[in-house]
Request: fold
Amino acid sequence: MSKETFYRVIIVSLLLLNLGVLAYLWMGRDAAPQDMGRYRQGEPAPFIIKSLQLDEAQQVQFDGLRDKHQHNTRQLREESKQLHDALFKLLHDEVVDSTKTDSLMLLISANNRAKEMVNFNHFRELKTILKPEQYKLYDEFIESIARRFGPPPHPHHDKRH
Reply:
């Protein structure tokens, strides 16, 4: 087999493989289980609803909280993208203006703080729609969230001799 024929076979094989993967992904999206109800797959909403045992009325209230949270988060993500784009554009300059760099760094820090505050307030507002008997579930839920998104645990060093 000549090199040219070999490369043609490889190219056609890779093309067919790519088309197969695309078809699988396309079909997999349509065939995804619909057990998420009104939520998209991968969203945390079903987990939250189940963990806190929200009733139908609470789920409607939660929808409003979730929509507000997602709107605020989207705005802050877009702002973050613009700030980072502006920061990295400075790398094209012959001489990097440290005042602009510092200013953008402060704005990026403020944006990160705002994102954390949006998340904090979202979970604080979530508690307001709960019934007193759900508070224990909420506390357990918040602890699991903190473990998931907090820093990794440090190895315990025993200082006894």
Q: What stands out?
A: Confidence is low (pLDDT under 50) at residues 28-41. DSSP finds five helices and no strands in the chain. The CA atoms of residues 58 and 130 lie 7 Å apart.
